[in-house]
Design goal:
The protein is α/β, with parallel strands linked by helices. 32% of the residues lie in helices and 25% in strands. It has one domain: Rossmann fold, CATH 3.40.50. An 8-stranded mixed beta sheet has the order 4-3-2-1-5-6-8-7, with helices on both faces. Helix 1 links the parallel strand 1 and strand 2. The mean pLDDT is 95.
Length: 186
Amino acid sequence: MITYHFGGSRSLISSPVVYQVVTASLAAGYSLHVGCAIGADAQVIQAAININPARLHVFAAFTAEHFGAWSGSAVATVHAAAQMGARVSFLPRVDLAIPLAGRLIRRSKTALFGCNASAFFLATPFSSGSLAVAGAAVRAGQPVFAFCVGFPGSPGCPHGCDGHWLPAPFMNYAAWRWQPAQSKFF
């Protein structure tokens, strides 16, 4: 089964693009992985539970009892997803002894595992957390896409990656696709 990882800016305001892309992905029969934050993650979760929660897997950097949650956690949305039949993994490959920033990046890298592609809904061109996860996806060999929801132009570079963004459709919606630099060694 094809699985897409979705993520993006915690500061992303409500965007019809998120709903449209999630709807198209689920209509095509794909499964989705997403994190647990407010903003883009919460919008992906909400769209998916309205359409087909059984194909959604949420990765939460907090416990089912909310331990480890913070102001950027979409606790109510994650619990709604679980109640609607989505799969929710609380503290996947993470424990509360790890500082919050470490828990969030480890959670996101765990969500990437097994995905065929990643797409990010960005509110700014330099969304550091999202671009760090995008860098991990590039290094894992996944195609990486970005939607510039809150600004015109192209996004910043995925962390630690050489290459450039090219305009490319994702689920028939205008997006950017990361093109890694070609190796100089054959």
